[in-house]
Amino acid sequence: MPTKIDPSDTLVLFVDLQAGIADKPLTNPYGDLQKGVTALSKLAKMFELPVIVSALRGQDGSDAQIMPEIGQALGSYLVHYRTTADSFENEAIKAAIEATGRKTILISGAITEIAVQMPTLSGTALGYRVFVVVEAVGGFSPRTEEAAFHRILQAGATTTSVTALSLEIAGDFRQPKGRQAMAILSEIMGG
């Protein structure tokens, strides 16, 4: 099995990056989460990675207010609503993932222990290569997030960072996409 991420076989799953969840006090402060999500969104746009956004409706049935950074980078996108913790338990989301024909999933979301962990476990069990992008997730507490990461790794999924991902898929830094990826890396590093 290949160890590197191939952009032509990769999609991004954003989960519960919405008001009322992602903006709660998390293990990854909101400003840092925004940077990670922005960088991942820009990489998805640049490398033409299919993006699937999964969210929960409000208790009153209202639409989720998704982090604006995703739309700023991608433009318009469809939000798939679910009623379970696991995005793979929603047939429309599972079908959207399958329709891409891609077998590598990068997951970003809140809360790591629930909305990130559950589809990571299911995706891995279904034969996908799943990578949790650590700058683009946030958990309830360091202790419970650590337990989630341990379970994720035990199941055969992997963690990665936007930092490593941007350089890994950038290719030659002399080429336009390589230079753009370097610029995204510079943004996330704050310089």
Describe the structure.
By secondary structure, this protein is an alpha/beta fold. It has a single domain (7-188), classed as Isochorismatase-like (Rossmann fold), CATH 3.40.50.850. It is built from seven helices and six strands, in the order βαβαβαβαβαβαα. It has helices spanning 30-46, 68-74, 91-100, 112-125, 142-154, 162-170, 176-188, and strands at 10-15, 51-55, 79-81, 104-110, 129-138, 158-160. Strands 3-2-1-4-5-6 form a six-stranded parallel beta sheet. Strand 5 (129-138), helix 5 and strand 6 form a beta-alpha-beta unit. Helix 1 (30-46) runs parallel beside helix 2 and helix 4 (112-125) packs parallel to helix 5. The chain is globular. The protein starts with 9 loop residues before the first strand and ends with a helix. The relative contact order is 0.19.
List keywords for this structure.
191 residues, alpha/beta, Rossmann fold, six-stranded parallel sheet, globular
CATH superfamily: Isochorismatase-like
Mean pLDDT: 92
Q: Summarize the biggest pleated sheet.
A: 6 strands, parallel
CATH architectural label = 3-Layer(aba) Sandwich
Beta-strand content: 15-25%
Dominant shape: globular
Instruction: Tell me the count of domains.
Output: 1
Structural class: alpha/beta
Low-confidence runs (pLDDT<50, min 5 residues)?
none
Instruction: Count every beta strand, where a strand is a DSSP E run of 2 or more residues.
Output: 6
Radius of gyration in whole Å, from Cα? 15 Å
CATH topology annotation: Rossmann fold
CA-to-CA gap between the ends?
36 Å
Strand order of the largest sheet: 3-2-1-4-5-6
Share of residues in helices: 40-55%
Number of helices: 7
**CATH domain class:** Alpha Beta
SSE run: EHEHEHEHEHEHH
